[in-house]
Design goal:
384 residues; 11 strands; binds magnesium ion; Rossmann fold; four-stranded mixed sheet; alpha/beta; binds NADPH dihydro-nicotinamide-adenine-dinucleotide phosphate; 47% helix
């Protein structure tokens, strides 16, 4: 029986992961969330966990009341997340928090020798070099949860990494596929949250609308699979059935297909290498009839372009585009800026930043902080 911990258990990925855990008798030792104390308490009781962490300290009392009389240790803040990451006797820590806040606990779990199931792509985007180096040093495995990266990971099984020619990273294109900038000026939050194929948390749904998500995934793929930017081709595939593919030196292309349901990659990451029953719809290719493929529009989608530029130049720049995007998306969701401002702010932060090599965590944290500061200052300036 496997034992896991789940950071971000109350979110879209976290709740689906707990369904997988329940179906396959996976033991859950600890859970963490940001502020949703009531769902966190409910999950803690259902899974009989030993530890819970609520990031926001002002929710601790609320959580204490909800868990009164139970032997569950309550933690909070980054310290709490890191304590959970440092627990022993855990086979896999699922990191499904949103944002680069997931980086430090991931590094802690790796130092502890705990394998990682990684949904939180911002971790690899910002601190990829540190994470991969630490994982190699500590003999820790990273199982991708992101559907495209799970697909690539599956296509690599039984093959030699050095014989990979190229990765084909598919993208749904999001709700604004085919639109030009002039048609995106008045996009509302509700329009941007209306994803055609996937139901996900708000931040990643906005990232899918700007194509930032594909840019983040491009960087994530480079770190996970050790490929260069020129070895990744992004292909728009509206149906989200072919989740990504790998082209080998012999011109064979191996792809992974399935219905768009995150339970498949979550289960594969948690139960690897087992392939057992998963409670999702079966894929019927004849129901789809046609699968379509197209090139992305780099002119319209600034964030995608910015991510590729950032990782090509490397160092602290990926942390800058990520930090700027996190701040810009939060501001868009709260009605402070328009949809197209997200791309402008991400590109602006990138142009404004003096690139540095990443040697330690502080290099990443300070690049992130300066990008957020740039975005908030620009938003203040835009108001005037
Ligand atoms: P959600 O917004 O649905 O959930 C985020 C989760 O993280 C919640 O449990 C939230 O708690 C928790 N959280 C946020 N901040 C903190 C913090 N500081 N400390 C502890 N917990 C925190 O996001 P998703 O599940 O959609 O996405 C999670 C990650 O997975 C993202 O990185 C995303 O890009 C990636 N991903 C998601 C996919 C999807 O289908 N949803 C697909 C592929 C990747 P609370 O509920 O209290 O706010
Ligand atoms: Mg994805």
């Amino acid at each position: 029986m496997k034992t896991i911990t789940v950071l971000g258990s109350t979110g879209s990925i976290g709740t689906q992961a707990l369904e997988v855990a329940s179906k396959h008798n996976i033991k859950v030792k600890a859970l963490a969330a940001h502020s949703n104390a009531s769902l966190l308490a409910q999950q803690a009781i259902e899974f009989d966990v030993q530890y819970v962490c609520i990031y926001q300290s002002d929710k601790v009392n609320n959580l204490k009341e909800l868990l009164q009389g139970r032997e569950i240790e309550i933690l909070s803040g980054m310290k709490g997340l890191k304590s959970i990451a440092a627990l022993d006797g855990v086979d896999i820590m699922l990191n499904s928090v949103v944002g680069m806040v997931g980086l430090e606990p991931t590094l802690t779990a790796i130092e502890q020798g705990t394998d990682i199931a990684l949904a939180n792509k911002e971790t690899l985007v910002t601190g990829g070099e540190l994470v991969i180096k630490a994982a190699e040093k500590n003999g820790v495995k990273i199982f991708p949860v992101d559907s495209e990266h799970s697909a690539i990971f599956q296509c690599l099984q039984g093959n030699k990494r050095e014989q990979v020619r190229k990765i084909i990273l598919t993208a749904s294109g999001g709700p604004f596929y085919g639109k030009k900038k002039s048609q995106l000026e008045n996009v509302t939050v509700a329009d941007a949250l209306n994803h055609p194929n996937w139901s996900m948390g708000n931040k990643i749904t906005i990232d899918s609308a700007t194509l930032m998500n594909k840019g983040l995934e491009f960087i994530e793929a480079m770190h996970l699979f050790g490929v260069k930017p020129e070895q990744i081709e992004i292909v728009i595939h509206r149906e989200s059935v072919l989740h990504s593919a790998v082209e080998y030196n012999d011109c064979s292309v191996i792809a992974q297909l399935g219905v768009p349901d995150m339970k498949i990659p979550i289960q594969y990451a948690l139960l690897y290498p087992e392939r057992v029953e998963c409670p999702v719809r079966l894929l019927s290719l004849t129901d789809y009839g046609t699968l379509t493929f197209a090139r992305p529009d780099y002119e319209t989608f600034d964030c995608l372009r910015a991510c590729i530029k950032a990782i090509t130049l490397g160092g602290t720049l990926p942390a800058v585009v990520n930090g700027a995007n996190e701040a810009a998306v939060e501001s868009f969701l709260s009605g402070k800026i328009g949809f197209l401002d997200i791309g402008k702010l991400v590109e602006g932060a990138l142009e404004n930043h003096q690139r540095k090599d990443v040697n330690e965590l502080d290099d990443v944290l300070s690049a992130d902080a300066s990008a957020r500061k740039y975005v908030y200052n620009e938003i203040e300036r835009m108001k005037k």
